[in-house]
Design a protein that fits this description.
Layout (H helix, E strand, L loop, with lengths): L5 H11 L1 H5 L1 E3 L3 H10 L7 H10 E4 L3 H6 L14 H15 L12 E6 L4 E6 L6 E5 L6 E5 L2 H14 L4 H4 L16 H11 L2 E5 L5 H12 L11 E4 L9 H6 L9 E5 L1 H5 L4 E6 L7 E5 L3 H10 L4 H7 L5 E2 L5
Parallel strand pairs: 7-8, 7-9, 11-12
Antiparallel strand pairs: 1-2, 3-4, 4-5, 5-6, 9-10, 10-11
């Protein structure tokens, strides 16, 4: 990872915008920066990059005098370098808004905002792509645009823009994308928290959206009372297209185990295409990532016993036959 050109950046910014230069906050100790990131559960090789950035300056003090100048960190569009605590709050904001605006979900726990226009747009470091910089807009039609291959590249462009008093390349070229921002399925933690808090039931998460009729039929089968006493699975169905393609591996990577949930059910293509409708059950607590399948007609037994703690996940998983599907206990 190349060294950040921070001394040159400060020289160029102060020369063009002395008022902003006077409002740059002192650098923050590496220990404190890391503690803030740990509090936000940010774990990435890019943390070292951000520790260096905020060790140089802790952000910029934003006030009315600075706003009245209409000048920001670089010419053209007015972006600032917000204080670290504010940037961390914006990082959490992406999580909050994804609950109501699913198209923001890919930013959750992935894009750390470092430059902000004071309203609805950011430049953010991609924690999953070696520190590439992504332009983020709170806009459903154009919310993520790859901007620079690295933070070094962006800072060098900001230096050039200040020296020449011209816009940075990203805006000068009309926001032309550089590279490709890969959208990966993930579970916004806020969504999980709110659903769990409101329902208190086990989650059945739909991950395949090819057959609406099969999904409706499966829901009816899961909810059908069973046996003499009418046992049913106490579940809440999560039908959100942004979770298409979600896998157990993604669930573990998104750390849902920290929520108060020990397991959940995934409905994938295999579930909907197979006559028995074998639903995938994922352990999130004892052996995170361990799975087995259960036919829909026996889901009530798995859900009831795991929720009440009458049986362990391993007991059902071990009882699944050679094809990994649990079809109930022998008579």
């Amino acid at each position: 990872m190349s060294e950040l050109p921070l001394a040159e950046l400060e020289r160029a910014v102060v020369a063009r915008n002395p008022l902003l230069g006077a409002r740059l906050l002192p650098g923050i100790s590496a220990r404190k920066v890391r503690r803030i990131f740990e509090k936000r559960q940010i774990s990435s090789p890019c943390v070292d990059l951000l520790v260096t950035l905020y060790g140089w300056k802790g952000g910029c003090r934003l006030d009315d005098a600075l706003a009245r100048t209409g000048k920001g960190l670089f010419p053209g569009e007015t972006y600032h370098f917000p204080p670290l605590n504010l940037a961390a709050a914006h990082f959490g904001f992406f999580d909050d808004v994804a609950a109501n605006f699913p198209w923001m979900a890919p930013a959750v726990d992935r894009l750390f905002p470092i430059f902000w226009n004071g309203s609805d747009s950011w430049f953010a470091v991609d924690l999953e792509d070696a520190g590439a910089v992504v332009a983020v807009r709170f806009d459903p039609d154009r919310h993520f645009t790859p901007a620079y291959a690295s933070l070094v590249d962006m800072l060098l462009d900001i230096i050039r823009a200040n020296d020449e008093d011209t816009p940075i390349s990203f805006f000068r070229e009309g926001g032309k994308p550089v590279g490709h921002f890969e959208v990966r399925p993930r579970v916004p933690k806020t969504v999980a928290r709110r659903r769990l808090a409101s329902a208190g039931n086990s989650l059945v998460v739909r991950t395949d959206f090819a057959d609406e009729e099969a999904w409706r039929a499966l829901r009816e089968e899961i909810e059908e009372p069973r046996g003499e006493f009418g046992f049913t699975a106490h579940v809440e169905f999560v039908d959100a297209p942004d979770l298409a393609g979600l896998t157990p591996e993604r669930l573990i990577a998104d750390d849902l185990a920290e929520e108060k949930i020990g397991f959940l059910f995934l409905v994938d293509r295999v579930t909907l295409d197979t006559p028995e409708h074998p639903v995938l059950v994922v352990d999130l607590r004892h052996e995170p990532g361990r799975t087995f399948r259960v036919v829909a007609s026996e889901m009530w037994g798995v859900e009831n016993n795991l929720s009440l703690g009458n049986m362990d996940f391993a007991e059902f998983a071990d009882a699944a036959v050679e094809d990994g599907v649990f079809r109930g206990w022998p008579e």
